[in-house]
């Protein structure tokens, strides 16, 4: 391919041209707005250079919501293409690009930052810490994730989107079958964002193990903190596998090595094994923190302590171990033999047991509880039956003999979405409504929230239940069209209606944010839900230093016991508080990584060398930088506490 031809969109269409114009106008509008309102300094001081875990959590949250709509647009286009037989809305190549980017965006760039948002914001507060263990590393983690996301999102207007599926199986992802630079974007976007995620894993594990408040033993940690700890341990073990696989795939594409080729000693199945050794634990990296959020919400709005705390912790540990022992069920039909299939079929069904334990623990928590139906609680209650449907169909897919019928059909697509949407998206939306007042000082409107919860949950069933039936009838996934004689039309039309319903539900969330920002009361106090855990013991919004005095923990639910049993949570007197300074290095390093990835994607070797030097220069600068942070004085603390009603 000629050098400059690489920058062209290989499969242009009116939609892509319209996207180019929209991106250009949006960038111009943002720059014009920041200039007109003189917000460049504010943006740099308060957000681009921040190392505050709470602001970083909010930036993760904004990114996740934006990517939710980005991936949702792809989903709507896919459903529209399949809504009628022999439709010509999209051609085969454009459809391939859309379902590839939909999967990547939703898993890596929507679900992951959603859980990172709550980990960043909530975990230090739940354990009574001032910040995470490594604040600057935390900022760098976010900017690496963000730049990876932006790198993937420019692919469809510069060079072409990835088109080998979100799993990017070789040889489909090789230069022979994927000639454009789209798969290069895949390799580098995931590599850069994955590096940020790995850093977050190390940071969060250190924070939880080393920075808990006095008296908070491991078995007194809140359930969301436990779920975050387990998920981050999985990250530390799983993400290096993805890093190595992406490096090997990049070498195959850019330097003609033969790790995954079907000739010269390569092995295409090696990619499938590497990918799913990371990919299946990734499912639990996403779901376990959502389970932690459900545990906090169900306990709070049942007005009783969580049933079976030890069994909940034990089930998460067992899930984390088994998650590394089931990867082969993703390719039962690829010829590894009956014995291997049988072993992984058993481990697949075994992992359903600890998951079932958690379901029953939540149900027993609800039993005899004084249940209060709020929007977060409604999401949590709707999650249980819908997720159970997804889980049961997962057991069906786990039977290797039956999987020959289900595999590569829409049945599998339905199962995956019926697990991930209630298991992750519902959890994140429940957490969004639950923690919104702690983040911003006011509640989201409960009436609008309940409408959106019902619309999203019913639309989920409407969108994906028909896929079970069309899959059993033989509709293959990844097909961009089908004939009328197959009879798939009615199922796909119903799914299209469900997809539109989901879009309406997510638009209601946007409207709720707008409405509540304008009209909601700011007088909600620090504990609007009558909650039980430590993050609700400080002000809303949370001060920079989190707690004026370090809390003293002597029970599993210290804040609840302080309210109901008179336990003393804060003792002593105000002392000056040490805090880290803001830094522009993480943002600058993220930008350099963006340029570094872009240079390699297009084989621009001089810029690649220059940006590599820039990366090491930033690291060296940080290594020799003499910055010991700053102190917040007692007077400042007293002033803040007085102004917030302490």
TrEMBL record:
Ranges that cross the membrane: 15-37, 58-78, 98-125, 137-158, 185-209, 229-250, 270-294, 306-327, 339-364, 376-402, 414-436, 448-469, 489-514, 584-602
Keyword Membrane applies: yes
Main location: membrane
SUPFAM superfamilies for the chain: Cytochrome c oxidase subunit I-like
Bound cofactor: record note: Heme A3.
Record keywords, A-Z: Cell membrane, Copper, Electron transport, Heme, Hydrogen ion transport, Ion transport, Iron, Membrane, Metal-binding, Oxidoreductase, Respiratory chain, Transmembrane, Transmembrane helix, Transport
Domain spans labelled Cytochrome oxidase subunit I profile: 38-554
Pathway: Energy metabolism; oxidative phosphorylation
Cofactor(s) the protein requires to work: ferriheme a; Cu cation
Enzyme class: oxidoreductase
Subcellular location: Cell membrane
Protein EC: 1.10.3.-
Membrane association type: Multi-pass membrane protein
Catalyzed chemical reaction(s): 2 a quinol + O2 = 2 a quinone + 2 H2O
Domain of life: Bacteria
PANTHER family found in the cross-reference section: CYTOCHROME BO(3) UBIQUINOL OXIDASE SUBUNIT 1 (PTHR10422:SF35), CYTOCHROME C OXIDASE SUBUNIT 1 (PTHR10422)
Function statement: Catalyzes quinol oxidation with the concomitant reduction of oxygen to water.
Family: Belongs to the heme-copper respiratory oxidase family.
Record protein name field: Quinol oxidase subunit 1
Lineage: Bacteria, Bacillati, Bacillota, Bacilli, Bacillales
Gene: qoxB
């Amino acid at each position: 391919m000629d050098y400059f031809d690489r920058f062209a969109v290989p499969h242009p269409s009116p939609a892509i041209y319209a996207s180019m114009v929209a991106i250009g106008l949006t960038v111009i509008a943002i720059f014009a707005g920041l200039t007109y309102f003189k917000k460049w300094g504010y943006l740099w001081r308060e957000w681009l250079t921040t190392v505050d875990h709470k602001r970083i959590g909010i930036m993760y949250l904004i990114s996740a919501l934006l990517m939710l709509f980005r991936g949702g647009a792809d989903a709507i286009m896919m459903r529209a293409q399949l809504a009628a037989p022999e439709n010509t809305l999209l051609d085969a190549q454009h459809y391939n690009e859309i379902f590839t980017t939909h999967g990547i965006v939703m898993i890596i760039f929507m679900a992951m930052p959603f859980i990172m948002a709550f980990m960043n914001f909530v975990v230090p507060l739940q354990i009574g810490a001032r910040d995470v263990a490594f604040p600057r590393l935390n900022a760098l983690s976010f900017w690496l994730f963000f730049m990876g996301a932006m790198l993937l999102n420019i692919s469809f207007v510069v060079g072409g989107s990835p088109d080998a599926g979100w799993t990017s199986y070789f040889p489909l992802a090789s230069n022979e079958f994927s000639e454009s630079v789209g798969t290069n974007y895949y390799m580098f976007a995931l590599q850069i964002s994955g590096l940020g995620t790995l850093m977050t894993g190390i940071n969060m594990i250190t924070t939880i193990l080393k920075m808990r408040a006095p008296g908070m033993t491991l078995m007194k940690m809140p359930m969301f903190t436990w779920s975050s700890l387990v998920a981050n341990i999985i990250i530390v073990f799983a993400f290096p596998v993805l890093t190595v696989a992406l490096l090997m795939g990049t070498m195959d594409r850019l330097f003609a090595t033969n790790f995954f080729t079907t000739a010269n000693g390569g092995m295409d199945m090696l990619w499938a094994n590497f990918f799913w050794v990371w990919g299946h634990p990734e499912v639990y990296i996403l779901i376990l923190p959502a389970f932690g959020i459900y545990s906090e919400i169900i306990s709070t709005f049942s007005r009783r302590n969580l049933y079976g705390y030890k069994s909940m912790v034990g089930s998460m540990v067992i899930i984390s171990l088994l998650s590394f022992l089931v990867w082969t069920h993703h390719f039962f039909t690829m010829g590894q033999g009956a014995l291997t299939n049988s072993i992984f079929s058993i481990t697949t069904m075994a992992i359903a047991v600890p998951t079932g334990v958690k379901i029953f623990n939540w149900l027993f928590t609800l039993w005899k509880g004084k249940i209060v139906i709020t929007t977060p609680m409604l999401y949590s209650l709707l999650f249980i039956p819908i997720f159970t449907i997804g889980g049961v169909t997962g057991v069906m897919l786990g039977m290797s003999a039956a999987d020959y019928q289900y595999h590569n059909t829409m049945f599998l697509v339905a199962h995956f979405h019926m697990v991930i949407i209630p298991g992750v998206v519902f959890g994140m939306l429940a957490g969004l409504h639950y923690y919104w007042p702690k983040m911003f000082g006011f509640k989201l409107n409960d009436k609008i929230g309940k409408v959106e919860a019902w619309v999203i949950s019913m639309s989920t069933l409407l969108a994906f239940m028909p896929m079970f039936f069309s899959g059993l009838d033989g509709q293959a996934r990844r097909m961009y069209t089908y004939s009328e004689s197959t009879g798939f039309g009615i199922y796909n039309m119903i799914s299209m209606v469900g997809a539109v319903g989901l879009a309406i539900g997510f638009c209601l969330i946007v409207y709720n944010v707008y409405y509540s920002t304008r009209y909601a009361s700011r007088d909600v106090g620090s504990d609007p839900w009558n909650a039980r855990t430590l993050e609700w013991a400080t002000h809303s919004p949370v001060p920079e230093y989190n707690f004026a005095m370090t809390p003293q923990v002597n029970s599993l639910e210290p804040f609840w016991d302080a309210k109901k049993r008179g336990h003393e949570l804060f003792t002593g007197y105000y002392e000056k508080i040490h805090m880290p300074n803001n830094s522009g290095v993480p943002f600058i390093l993220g930008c350099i990584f963006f340029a570094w990835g872009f240079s390699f994607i297009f084989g621009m070797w001089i810029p690649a060398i220059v940006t590599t030097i820039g990366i090491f220069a930033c690291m060296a600068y940080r290594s020799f930088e003499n910055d010991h942070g700053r102190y917040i004085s007692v007077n400042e603390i007293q002033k803040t506490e007085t102004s917030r009603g302490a």
